[in-house]
Amino acid sequence: MNQRQTPSSPTDLTEHPEVDLYEYALLRLIPDLERGESLNVGVVVYCRKRDYLQVRISADENRLRAFSPGMNVEQLRRALNGIAAHCAGDDHAGGDSLGRRFRWLTAPRSTIVQSGPVHPGLTDDPDATLARLFERLVQS
Known about the structure:
alpha+beta
């Protein structure tokens, strides 16, 4: 006779760790708005249930200059540092919740660094998910 395990059994929980909804968006360098070409320079991940908001950024000068030879790398670094500071909750974030900061970071804008569309997913480890997305979508 086959016995079915209930979803609350300890074995079932260890075999299927809890996963939570997360959202992510790419950060794109767009040096010439008229041309619309972009280079992925970062990724931001938000998971409300785990109180998680982190960003990883790459400002590899050789890659940036190959993509846009006339690029002002220092200006780009200042913009990326501002994004990282807002994500971390700097003074300009004004005590905003993580969700509100994520929405601000991913809002449409016409600057040199723009967010791509927000995508959902499921994760049991937001840090590992951020690392995987960064490696696959930014560094490759």
